Amino acid sequence: MADMTKRVPIAEQEPQVRAHNFDEVCLGYTEEEAVEEAKRCLNCKNPRCVGGCPVSIRIPEFIHAVTERDFKKAYEIISDSSSLPAVCGRVCPQETQCEGVCIRGIKGEAVAIGKLERFVADWARENGIHPEPPKEKNGHKVAVIGSGPSGLTCAGDLAKMGYDVTIFEALQKAGGVLVYGIPEFRLPKDKVVAAEVNNVKGLGVDIETDVVIGKSLTIDDLMEEFGFEAVYIGSGAGLPRFMGIPGETANGVFSANEVLTRSNLMKAYEDKDTPIIHGKKVVVVGGGNVAMDAARTALRLGAEVHIVYRRSEKELPARAEEVHHAKEEGIHFDLLQNPVEILADDKGWVKGIRVIKMQLGEPDASGRRRPVPIEGSEYEIDCDTVIMALGTSPNPLIASTTKGLDTNKKGCILAKEEDGETSKTAVYAGGDAVTGAATVILAMGAGKAAAKGIDAYFKNKK
Amino acid sequence: MYEIVRKEQLASNILLMDVKAPMVTHSCLPGQFIIAIAEEDGERIPLTICDYDREKQLVTIVFQPIGESTEKIAKLNVGDSFHDFVGPLGKPSELCIPENLEETKKKHIVFISGGVGTAPVYCQVKWLHEHGVDVDVIQGSRNKDLLFFEDKMREAAGNLYVCTDDGSYEFHGMGTDRLQALWDEGKRYDWCVAIGPMIMMKFVCKLTEKLGIHTVVSMNPIMVDGTGMCGACRLIVGGEVKFACVDGPEFDGHKVDFDKAMQRMQQYKTEEGRKKLEYEEGDTHHGGCGVCGGDK
Ligand SMILES: Cc1cc2nc3c(=O)[nH]c(=O)nc-3n(C[C@H](O)[C@H](O)[C@H](O)COP(=O)(O)OP(=O)(O)OC[C@H]3O[C@@H](n4cnc5c(N)ncnc54)[C@H](O)[C@@H]3O)c2cc1C
Ligand SMILES: Cc1cc2nc3c(=O)[nH]c(=O)nc-3n(C[C@H](O)[C@H](O)[C@H](O)COP(=O)(O)OP(=O)(O)OC[C@H]3O[C@@H](n4cnc5c(N)ncnc54)[C@H](O)[C@@H]3O)c2cc1C
Ligand code: SF4
Ligand code: SF4
Ligand code: FES
Fold first, then answer.
1. Is A134 among the domain residues?
2. Is residue A272 located within the same domain as residue A354?
3. Which residues contact A253 (CB under 8 A, 6 or more apart)?
4. Is B245 annotated as a binding residue?
5. Which residues are in coiled coils (chain A) (predicted)?
6. Both A368 and A401 in a single domain?
7. In this structure, are A35 and A88 located in the same domain?
């Protein structure tokens, strides 16, 4: 009898091997392994896990279907609540969501809900199961801005209800952060992301890439000139923050977005046309998923990488699995330190970074203990590249060109949580554009809610 | 698809293309730029809009093949299509915004172009001419062979002053020399727009600061997305960090930190750019010649 307090182990590429390639780190469960892991679920009457999932996937039900090897049914149960299970199973911060509250986690390891979800979604894709397009169209045109998880979900759901949906995407490829941000080794682009995008297309959704709303066309153009009766804004939060410290314009200082975009969207790692840094010693500033992704990308491009983060390990906002993987791969964590200056040589190239040590003080508004500098503790770290991964905020392009669309101080679009309604009639919004940088599952959930909201809007209009 | 309907060689190593791009021509104005991608997984190459025809939905670009990606674009022919062609990006020139026209008409304006910069200058000069504003233009070129658009420019400009670095045609000297000469003759301007290589814009700004002429420059730093997402294009303007792709590309030239900007242009030159640079500098690229789009 297997030890039921422990998870069925999952196959991963060896750290020393994967540190030199961009292939997916986690190889996923086999059928046997998935069924065995599924059996660990206690099928709770009052499943706490469901409450931990932002879109309330009926977790014990799908897991039960896995124990019965009815993977199709499992997929259908998940699909009732989520349209991107292959993505969410891979990138959700499960330890703070579904798995964080799983009853199994009290005396042992939580059920590997994310890994099971991923298994089911991968199985469905490999077995050619796609969502069905609607039998009838209702003739109403809706425009969706942005093809990230939020826009894709909203578009997919509306298409299933019979709407005529067009997605407008500023970049050359659809997928939002899933294509330009999260690296191949965590989320395979062709296998997973492109397949999800194709599913949405398969529902009859048109995707127009290379259209920047607010520049090429405005929201008013879409509604007045192009006949769209409603609009969903899922434009994300792509604007990078810098620290504003001396030396930040030195050569060799990049935003994580630049490095990740060149690597993921333009496939610099496959040696395509776009140039990319080949630093020897890289410092990444920040502790979130973006920092981990930038760090592990730089590592794979051949650098020694240090993550500089101002709080302690406990406060790292990145997914636990990514921190664990990053450590295994040999990334150095320089915690409780904060950069104060970037040092450049006489030609303007980065040669180091000056940091100050920090200690944790009282908890701040976010509930995390506030880092305070320790006076006189400054020292220098040698490096030739600095990558800033300090978080992002929504791009003002859309808000500034749309009359009557209200935003808050941070530039986030104001929208009702339950249905995405904004201050402008027939315009809905959700995802990172509303919340600021958050998660894939929340963005997806907002897209779903807004699809319902838009449908209700049309029904009430009649 | 973004089909190329016309391709012309304007001078040795300077090409013009008309590209079908309805989403760009829907609302573009002079001063804005587009991003072109030649083929899948290609580099995003920013190029200034050099003319446009809203009715025919055509955008004109003029460029100099200087590296891998611009070479790839140069190989495309009439009938071929760009994989991607997105825009208009950036802000229009403040002179060419219809609402600003009354203000514009009060100004005494001179444009100074260098090399490939002549094409975007022409776009603005033509727009102003069509809206009843005649401006003076100083058109600089390294030599006579590299000069293009002279006739079109003469038609659209109030006065056209051509100059060549080597004296092979018209005035012998650079744009700055020509402006100084006009000033000495008693010409007066209160607004200058300079578009060309960074080094040329830097020297124009030095001169116009002395002469007290407000000067606008079009900055062309390294860009990736062109929508404010990557920060690659950041510049120091008036002591503040600005993103050229969304806050520009045109800025008050007297506030731009050109040395920082030129230093940042070197970013990728140590890596993949090296090879091409050697090739580039071996022939035309000396910096400041007013010909090469390379350090523009
Ligand atoms: C590197 C990185 C790693 C991450 N890792 C995780 C993780 O492990 N787990 C997790 O849950 N979350 C993660 N996140 C966060 C997550 O990716 C986002 O919260 C999520 O993608 C938000 O989805 P969205 O649809 O709102 O926006 P996005 O995914 O940002 O998509 C917005 C899309 O809109 C387009 N757009 C923007 N403006 C315009 C315009 N004017 N016109 C047309 N199109 C426009 C953009 O090009 C983009 O394609 C990560 C984020 C990053 C950057
Ligand atoms: C807003 C804007 C408008 C522009 N308009 C024009 C135009 O109308 N006509 C024209 O000929 N050129 C223009 N440029 C410059 C043009 O984009 C570059 O020549 C081109 O990107 C070089 O790409 P490449 O791959 O061929 O060369 P690469 O092989 O990338 O590089 C050659 C060298 O050029 C440098 N470089 C890389 N990216 C850029 C960049 N974006 N700008 C300048 N140098 C770069 C690199 O350091 C490299 O070493 C413009 C640039 C910007 C930002
Ligand atoms: S969507 Fe995310 S939170 Fe919900 S069950 Fe799946 S992995 Fe857990
Ligand atoms: S809480 Fe854990 S054990 Fe209970 S149903 Fe959910 S996954 Fe199964
Ligand atoms: S080009 Fe990326 S922010 Fe300007």
1. no
2. yes
3. A247, A342, A350, A385, A386, A387, A388
4. yes
5. none
6. no
7. yes
Is A131 contained in some domain?
Answer: no
Could you tell me if the CB of B243 is within 6 A of ligand 2?
no
Mean pLDDT by 10 residues, chain B (296 residues): 92 91 94 93 91 94 89 92 94 91 90 92 94 92 88 89 86 85 89 92 93 93 90 90 91 93 76 46 39 36
Cβ–Cβ contact B141 with A under 8 A: no
Strands B136-141 and B45-48: unpaired
Q: Which residue has the tokens 């932002």?
A: A54
Nearest CA in chain A to B259: A348
CB A361 within 8 A of CB A369: yes
- Inspect the interface and report whether the beta carbons of B88 and A239 lie closer than 8 Å: no
Q: Is A130 inside a domain boundary?
A: no
Search chain A and give the residue with CA nearest B236. A249
**What does the pLDDT read at residue A83?**
85
User: Are both A417 and A439 inside the same structural domain?
Assistant: yes
A215 and B42: CB-CB below 8 Å?
no
Indicate the CATH number for domain B96-217. 3.40.50.80
Using most ligand atoms within 8 A of CB, pick from A59, A61, A106, A120 the residue to mutate for ligand 4.
A59
DSSP B119: H
Test the B interface: residue of A169, A171, A273 with most B CBs within 10 Å: A273
Q: What is the pLDDT of residues A410-437, one digit of tens each?
A: 889 999 999 999 999 999 999 999 999 9
CB B87 within 8 A of CB B57: no
Ligand 3 nearest atom to the CA of residue A81, by list position: 1
Which one of A216, A273, A396 has the shortest CB-CB distance to B43? A273
CATH number given to B1-87? 2.40.30.10
Per-residue pLDDT band for A164 (boundaries 50, 70, 90) equals very high
Q: Where in chain B is the domain with CATH 3.40.50.80?
A: 96-217
Q: Is A210 on the interface with B (CB under 8 A)?
A: yes
Summarised one tens digit per residue, pLDDT across range A127-158 is 988 888 888 899 999 999 999 999 999 999 99
pTM: 0.90
Residues A14, A40, single domain; the answer is: yes
Mutate to test the interface with A, among B34, B230, B264 (most CBs of A within 10 A): B230
CA A440 – CA A153 distance, rounded (Å): 11
- List A residues 230-289 in contact with B (Cβ-Cβ < 8 A): 238-240, 242, 244, 248-249, 251-252, 254-255, 257-258, 261-262, 266-267, 270, 272-278
CA-nearest residue, atom 2 of ligand 5: B230
Tens digit of pLDDT for each residue in A28-50? 999 999 999 999 999 999 999 99
Same domain, A218 and A291: no
- Range of A268's domain? 238-389
Could you tell me if A225 and A323 lie in one domain? no
Residues A228 and A201 placed together within one structural domain of the fold: yes
Q: How many CA atoms lie within 13 A of B179 on its CB side?
A: 35
Q: Do B39 and A271 touch, CB atoms closer than 8 A?
A: no
pLDDT at A272: 67
- CB nearest to B236's CB, from A238, A249, A275: A249
Dmax over CA atoms of chain A, in Å, equals 70
Nearest to B214 by CA among B85, B68, B108, B78: B108
Q: What are residue A371's DSSP bridge partners?
A: A360
